[in-house]
Each structure stands twice: as C-alpha cells, then as structure tokens.
Amino acid sequence: MPGISVSKICVPFGGGGINWMQLNLVLEGHSFIMPGTNLGNELLRYAETYSFYNSAVGGSTFLSIEEGATTVDSKIVPTSTRAMNTLVLWAGVNGFYNDLGIGAIRYAEMKSYCLDRVAAGWKVFTYTMTPSTSGGRGAVFESERDIFNNLMRTDLATYANVYILDTDTIAEFDDPADTTYY
Question: Alpha carbon of 141 to those of 37, 60, 131, 172: distances in Å?
C-alpha cells in the first residue's frame, strides 16, 4: 500500500510482537476492508494466521452486519487451541448521512454489536469513522461523525476486549477526496 505502513493501519498489531500464527482473524465491515480493496488486499498479506476469514461487504451498515453475526461467531475457535479470536471491524459510514442525532444512533448500534461479539468470545478491534463527502455528506455529517468517534474513544474504549483504532490520528485518512486508502 503506497505511502502508509500496515503498522499504522493495524495498530496495535503492528510492531507489537504479535505472533500472527496465533490469531484467528476475522474481518468485518464495509468496502474499506472487503477483498479486492487496497486495505483488504493489504491485510490479506498478513493472513498467515491460525485461521482467516473476511466477511466484509461493500455497502454494509451496522444493521446488516448484525444480521451476519451468526456467521462471524461461527468462526470462533476454542481457546485451548492457543489461537486469539480477533475480530477487526471497520464500518459506520454507510447509513450515516446529514441527519442530526445519527451519530449517537449509529454508535449505539455499533456498541451493541461489539459488546455482543465480546460476549461471544472475540477481542474486537474497531476503527473510528473516516471523513466522507460522498453522497452529499457535509458539515452535519462531520459533526455527527465527531460525536460517533468521541463516543468510541470515551465509552467503547472502556470495555474489556474492545480496542479502538483511531483513524483520526493517521494523516493519510484526513482527505475524503483521496481514495488511495479506501
């Protein structure tokens, strides 16, 4: 992936001394990480894990992801195999437009999904929402995106086995017109 290292994308995996062969890794979300995209392909390079499954589909919303939760949970392996059940979630922008209050609504859906996966046995790594101008998204979207991301940082991050991957700290993701990375 030109211009960005996988350690930036996969924080805290990158450089953390993780033995990738111990990961039972499942990717879930929308088009940013589905197979065939820049990031999805980059993550496939690291798919030499205990097991790997990519459930991401373009256009996914939290509600459609929740509908597929049974499939994701069926990928859990017993902890006796020494594999870490690791779910990487990147979703949110679909179904998230210029509506006041949508940030808290979508956050509640995402939080529910994440905590249900933790209860099922996953360690959940989830990305914050990146800026977007597609579909006429504007100032209200940005304001609601900030609410959503701040709730992730201040609330969701307090739960055990949930880890926030903050895209706002990665300069390459700041320009919604630059689709190099998503």
Answer: 24, 18, 9, 20
- Alpha carbon distance 13, 101 (integer Å): 33
User: For the chain, what is the HEC assignment?
Assistant: CCCCCHHHHCCCCCCCCCCHHHEEEEEEECCCCCCCCHHHHHHHCCCCCCEEEECCCCCCCHHHHHHCHHHHHCCCCCHHHCCEEEEEEECCCCCCCCCCCHHHHHHHHHHHHHHHHHHHCCEEEEECCCCCCHHHCCHHHHHHHHHHHHHHHHCHHHCCCEEEECHHHCHHHCCCCCCCCC
For residue 4, what pLDDT band results from cuts at 50, 70 and 90?
very low
Let me know the angle formed at the C-alpha of 154 by 63 and 5, rounded to the nearest 5 degrees.
80
* 109, 151 Cβ separation under 8 angstroms: no
- Find the radius of gyration of the CA atoms of the chain: 16
Give the contacts of 169 (CB within 8 A, at least 6 positions apart). none
pTM metric for this prediction: 0.81
Report pLDDT digits (tens) over 103-141: 999 999 999 999 999 999 999 999 898 887 777 778 888
